Amino acid sequence: MNRREFLVAGGGSALSAVAPSVAAPAWADESGRPFNRDEIVERAEALAARPYQRPERVGDPFRALGYDQYRDIQFRPERAIWSDDKRGFALELLHSGFIYDTPVDVHLVENGVEVPVRYDPSLFAFGKNELPHHPGSRLFSGIRLRYPINTPGYLDEVAVFQGGSYFRSVGEGQVYGVSARGLAIDTGEPQGEEFPIFRSFWIERPIIGARTATVHALLDSPRVAGAYTFHIMPGHSTLMDVDATLFARAEIGHLGLAPLTSMYLFGSMERPRFPDYRDAVHDSDTLTVAEAGGNWVVRPLANPKTLQMSAFAANDVKGFGLQQRSVRYTDFKDLEAKYELRPSIWVAPRKGWGEGVVELVEIPSDREFNDNIVAFWRPSRVLKPGAPLHYAYALRWGRPMTESGLARVKETNGGLTLDRSRQLFVVDFVAPLDVETPGGRKGADFFPDEIEPSVWASAGGVANVVGYPNRATGGYRASFELDTSGVDLSELRLALKHDEAVVSETWLYRWTG
After folding, report:
1. Contact (Cβ atoms closer than 8 angstroms) between residue 345 and residue 178
2. What is the helix (H) or strand (E) element at residue 179, kind and residue range?
3. Whole-angstrom Cα distance, residue 503 to residue 448?
4. β-strand partners of 71
5. Taking every annotated instance into account, which residue ranges of this chain make up the domain Glucan biosynthesis periplasmic MdoG C-terminal (predicted)?
6. CATH of domain 408-512
7. Cα angle 108-200-203, degrees, rounded to a multiple of 5
């Protein structure tokens, strides 16, 4: 059983909810110390100045727990912190065990004082498990925040921080899917990836009736330490403002900021390889990049036969994200997984990030339980000891971004032509939502008769480029054929033009033989 299986089934639906109930008497450690965010930055700097120490792991029987056994360990909802204080949010602790074998320290921040939370087995229901109970042990693996985003009076799961530097969230009416991480290092490199972890969390007590929760975290890894602050605002879309400062122990050349992790098993382009009753299986289907010059790049995800790494020039990138543009039940036909309810995630850098690229890593996979998609922004600069990196960004978890003002890529389909050496591509565009062009066109009228598809391929011949209105969607369909004779890989680009101006998102695709 791997991490992906747990997220799909064990982590459960974010639509699950508990009614607010009376919290237990304070079980936090009575000792405390003054708190301010600057001290976490100082701790990260001091940590980076010392040799790296591997985190301790919980031993058996907790590490030996199977998937179902671990699922039996549930935080008691009546013990949720702040649930009876009318503060809007409730905080729950997550138990160590199964694949979550690295304990974390948890602190509450109240009235400017940080108070460590001590482990107490009475906080949890253990189901059929017979486990040793040792109050005071380090057996927390993460935290969960609840907030009523779906039904007034019910506390829905809105954010979870657990495992490495992973965290995830949802918007209104959604279920968990795509995840984010604090940092990525050497993703896709032959020597293997380095996985930073959050060692400690500090959660500030929300004010009465709060709409925002604040979580601080201390990150550590063999070559870097860092301080993170998350301001979390649940809602129709859940927003997170993230502030991070990194200190290197050793030089890092392949650094991934704001990394996103998702699953893509198959869609229409891979359908023949998967004898499945469903039409598609994925948490995300598109990488979208908003370039500084106003161009929006859309890259449908793929499940390749070999590892694929792609880079998209993104100096001072305005935003990027992994999106789930397929949002209808009929796109999937899966009653249990509810892939149409998986959130899209969007990264919006603050204050400009300078020179760099958005990298996409696509890993071959034959199971929907494996996260096989990674996207992040890679700075051109090398992170070196003595030269800290401070950066900030906003995360949006919710519906797909539709703010480009350009015709949007709605769907990609394809297959072989009668000439088996030719691959057919069919790309459907729809008009931007609630946006008029300078000429006053909107909706189905967004596409004038003079629109032309512009297609480019890095290898292979392009033929039969055709564009025409799609009466069924009120949009526009462009299609073309790629002659793949003698070609192993071809980078494809398609955009709609009117009077030589690009009026659509730019569709990119990597065809591999």
Report:
1. yes
2. strand 179-181
3. 11
4. none
5. 35-511
6. 2.60.40.10
7. 25
| pLDDT one-digit tens code per residue, 307-339 | 999 999 999 999 999 999 999 999 999 999 999
Pick out the chain residues at pLDDT < 70: 1-31, 434-445
CA 305 – CA 362 distance, rounded (Å): 10
Task: Name beta bridge partners: 230.
Answer: 215, 242
Reported as a single tens digit per residue, the pLDDT across 113-138 is 999 999 999 999 999 998 887 777 89
d(CA 171, CA 331): 20
Distance CA 410, CA 428 (A): 5
pLDDT at 86: 84
The first and second tokens of residue 50, run together, are 């010392």
How far, in Å, CA of 217 to CA of 245, rounded? 11
pLDDT at 434: 52
Alpha carbons 269 and 306: distance in angstroms, whole number? 16
Entry pTM: 0.91
Residue 81 neighbours by CB distance under 10 Å: 24
3-398 topology per CATH: Beta-galactosidase; Chain A, domain 5 (2.70.98)
Q: Tokens at residue 472, please?
A: 């069924």
Dihedral, CA of residue 21, residue 84, residue 149 and residue 282, to nearest 10? -60
What count of other Cβ atoms lies within 10 Å of the Cβ of residue 134? 10
DSSP type of residue 34: E
| Residue extents of the structural domains in the chain | 3-398, 408-512
Buried-state track 349-359, b at ≥16 Cβ within 10 A, e below 16:
beeebeebbbb
